[in-house]
Amino acid sequence: MAELLHVSTPHCHVIKDGSIVTVTMHRPEARNALSTDMLVGLADAFGYIDSEPQVRVGILTGADGAFCSGADLKAMGTPSEDPRVRRRAAEIEDFHWKGLLRQARPSKPLVAAVEGPAVAGGTELVAGTDIRIAARGATFGLYEARRGLFPMGGCAVRLARQIPYTHAMDMLLTGRSYTAREAADIGLVTRVVPDGAAMDAARTAAEAIAACGPLAVQAILRVHRETEGMAEEEALRVSDRVGWQVMASDDAKEGARAFAEKRAARFTGT
């Protein structure tokens, strides 16, 4: 049964449904532009996904046909009217960076479901996720340089590590908009679906991830992140250290039994 979680805020709704948590940026009157209420909610939601043992995957999306139109500097600099949000803003160190997935990315996968604009900070949020489903009418872009600003959410570093260098520089230095098809062609998004279908496709991907062994999934993410930039020999040593722990787990034994018995595996994360 779907459950609205206590970490939700007026601008960020967090719903747990089984092992999947859906995080919805909810400020439709401003095309889900970032605010203090939203960033605190995002930071808490990502922390919950990371720490809650029952959660295996998260989905990040936006309300009412928009993903996120970037930062609303006025709203980000204005204290929330919600007492709990004000308290959490004081308690969470660097809540802006955690909310933007610049810091403390969850150890579990995040799937982005993108409809409409995902620009500036919206594109930076997309770059912090692991699988990205874009509706045909979605738009992407890092507009900061065009406005004399800097992409503080991490894309000045992260983007060229995810997509070819020249495409990253084109996006960062020209500040132009990209269609969903262009974003897929350069590898920024995983695939493009019809308008209105991004959430269903993201849910399908999340359910496929949730059916896998959680130790294996988290180990794959961990090895990728920890070995980025390492020489292959050094990276393989990290991979072996982490991988053999997974291979010795109860989940690995259960996976083999389930295969032999022609049934779905019942993974416990141990």
Give a brief rundown of this model.
This protein has 270 residues and is α/β, with parallel strands linked by helices. It has helices at 36-51, 73-76, 83-91, 95-99, 121-127, 155-162, 165-174, 180-185, 198-210, 214-227, 232-247, 250-260, and strands at 3-4, 12-17, 20-25, 57-62, 110-114, 117-119, 131-135, 139-141, 178-179, 191-193. It comes from Nocardiopsis gilva YIM 90087.
List the helices and strands and how they pair.
Layout: E1 3-4, E2 12-17, E3 20-25, H1 36-51, E4 57-62, H2 73-76, H3 83-91, H4 95-99, E5 110-114, E6 117-119, H5 121-127, E7 131-135, E8 139-141, H6 155-162, H7 165-174, E9 178-179, H8 180-185, E10 191-193, H9 198-210, H10 214-227, H11 232-247, H12 250-260
Parallel strand pairs: 3-4, 4-5, 5-7, 6-8, 7-10
Antiparallel strand pairs: 1-2, 2-3, 8-9
Helix pairs in contact: 1-3, 6-7, 10-11
Gross geometry = globular
What is the number of helical segments per DSSP (H or I, 4+ residues)? 12
Strand content: 15-25%
Whole-number count of domains: 2
Low-confidence stretches: none
CATH level-3 fold name of the largest domain: 2-enoyl-CoA Hydratase, Chain A, domain 1
- Main β-sheet description: 7 strands, mixed
The CATH homologous superfamily of the largest domain is named 2-enoyl-CoA Hydratase, Chain A, domain 1
Number of strands: 10
Task: Report the radius of gyration as a whole number of Å.
Answer: 19 Å
Q: Give the class-level CATH name of the largest domain.
A: Alpha Beta
Q: Report strand order across the widest sheet.
A: 1-2-3-4-5-7-10
Order of helices and strands: EEEHEHHHEEHEEHHEHEHHHH
Distance between the termini: 25 Å
Structural class: alpha/beta
Query: In CATH terms, what is the architecture of the largest domain?
Result: Alpha-Beta Complex
Residue share in helices? 40-55%
Average of pLDDT? 96
Family: Belongs to the enoyl-CoA hydratase/isomerase family.
Protein name: Enoyl-CoA hydratase
GO molecular function, one term: enoyl-CoA hydratase activity
InterPro entries: ClpP/crotonase-like_dom_sf, Enoyl-CoA_hydra/iso, Enoyl-CoA_hydra_C
